[in-house]
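Bug #77: duplicate submission created two jobs. Keeping one. Sequence:
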Amino acid sequence: MSRTLKDLLAQGAEAAAAVSAPGRPTLSHGALRLLIETTLARLNGLGLGRNDRVAIVLDNGPEMATCFLACANGVASAPLNPSYRADEFEFYLSDLNAKALIVGRGSASPAVDVAVKLGVPIIDLVSDAASPAGSFTLEPRRAGAATPATNGGYAAPEDVSMVLHTSGTTSRPKIVPLSQGNLAASASNIARTLQFSSKDCGLNIMPLFHIHGLIAGVLSPLAAGSQVFCTPGFNALKFFGWMDEAKPTWYTAVPTMHQAILGRASRSADVIARNPLRFLRSSSSSIPPQVIRELEEVFHAPLIEAYGMTEATHQMCSNPLPPALRKPGTVGQAAGPEVAIMSEDGVLLARGETGEIVIRGPNVTAAYESNPKANAEAFHNGWFRTGDQGVMDAEGYVSITGRLKEIINRGGEKISPREVDEILMDHPAVAQVVCFGMPHPKLGEEVAAVVVLREGQQASERELQEFVAQRAADFKVPKKVLFMPEIPKGATGKLQRIGLAAKLGLG
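Kept job's structure:
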């Protein structure tokens, strides 16, 4: 098995299409490899080498995909959500100890001002809509002689290739360093599960700051020598137009996207007939079996449900492609790492018994960075504890039965309730607050909050929502705010976020 991205990406035929985008000429696999090489040389010339953290804040599209690939080959790429507010960028750039920030030329992102404030060098990505999709050059915003990196060139398997944050149960997100070896293993696992070949073309609608889009949407198919059509982000109104242009053989999405696509599919039957898909894939949150049935009827193709998380470099389990058995409602069998079910006291359980889903393998992060407490809680005898409750049947298919973590999963976006608590606590009218997940028919969960106001103070739901929106991305804003005289507590007097929605009649 290839253990570096360079080895993996060497597999695509020189002239074969690699990266495409709406209305753009296509970038070949040979041109992609050359772009990676010249970009690494440029980064090295700017003093950036292996394991140096380079934050990337770019909109979805082909340049984000290729910039991530180039950085991941020789520095530690750190893709960040472009919709973050200034406070969030300040936290992430500081926490990462970013050595540079890559933004699009002319970017108005608050990340730019934050980088100036923190003294992080800014590099502009320059691209031309007339050039092949994904091609770009890098220009430092401040010209000056840089000392070339002493640790330049392509990364080794143990070097850090990507750094992402994951929402922790405390307010502080945890740093997840993922090595070359982790990325190469995961890309190979996914390519094997989905049987990618040079004949495939994936229609990518997933955000490229998220592990799902980066690994399943971009890296895995390119590593198998196939093509990726990079859209500017999900848009249900444009999906079928893109489908006609890209002629894809597959796409991957979160359940909410699939449902939005279904809503427009009836008037696009001719597009579906012209562009038959080999399969559809769903991951990041559970998809109702009814939706699976409807998608398969509409697209005349199997839907492959998979289970992933950042710490596993995305894929852990997957349903197989036909003719192998798919079990709707399960997340499939182990598809890369070893998967087992563990009891609370660390004993591996027999099939059919319910416990915590645990994993181990070459795609799993070695440890959280600078977080001994989180590592002590997450790792046990070499196994990583996912925080999800589940059961494995006699044939090895895993069903997720519940959540052991307080993390809110909003359509695949993971939110720490503590983070939102802390923002709300800064509001002068708020005395106490507890945020929690409440059920949502399409997103799975939404953020809700119970607020106790200070004596003699007033605040409306709208006011508190706007207060959060100033400091956090929109998906973290509570959809519902309940005002109560005191915070509901469990029998032991302990605050219990899990089950609070049901207790308050919200689900």
